[in-house]
Amino acid sequence: MIKEKGILFVLSGPSGVGKGTVRKALFEQDTDLRYSISMTTRAPREGEKDGVDYFFKTRNEFEKLISEGELIEYAEYANNYYGTPKAYVQQTLEEGKDVFLEIEVNGALQVRENFPEGVFVFLIPPSLEELKDRIVNRGTETEEKIKARLEAARDEIDMMDNYDYVIVNDNVDHAVSKVQSVVLSEHCKRSRVAKQYKQALEEDLT
After folding, report:
1. Which strand ranges, in their side-by-side order, compose the sheet holding 165-168?
2. Which residues are annotated as a binding site for ATP?
3. Which residues form a coiled coil (predicted)?
4. Which residues are annotated binding-site positions?
């Protein structure tokens, strides 16, 4: 019998591109993906809940987890830490279930080092002007912070070459459909299926 290990899917992209919106829409549909909630030291935005959108931690709590090696990635972005708990991801993959991460670009590059077999999806805006509109419409940023986020976004978009897939977020439903296509495609990949099939054959022969 083929024993299939779970696949780690990482959705990333510049701040304000709509990663959270796409992730929420994806998980509102019927999916076998398991969402790994990130940790952050930033304050909750309106409507966000601890343990649902993020695990909200103090700076001291977060730095303790870093020192104990309990995160597969972490990054400091706009004076706040963001990170992913290690134990949940490893255990879920071993159980044969897919794990879905939605994280910032710097964090995604660290995950790539720790889990090179993961699948990395880069979400981009139709244009930088559209990205600016989305950040402004949040109503949570000063003019100075908006400018800093846009400059950071330009740098992050330059990191696109580190990803396996690129999806333009011009429409949330279209973006979700493309993410679902990526998941299906990866499970049908010859290299992945062949490896699992050969292992199963060897076990049957012995």
Report:
1. 34-35, 99-102, 8-12, 119-124, 165-168
2. 13-20
3. none
4. 13-20
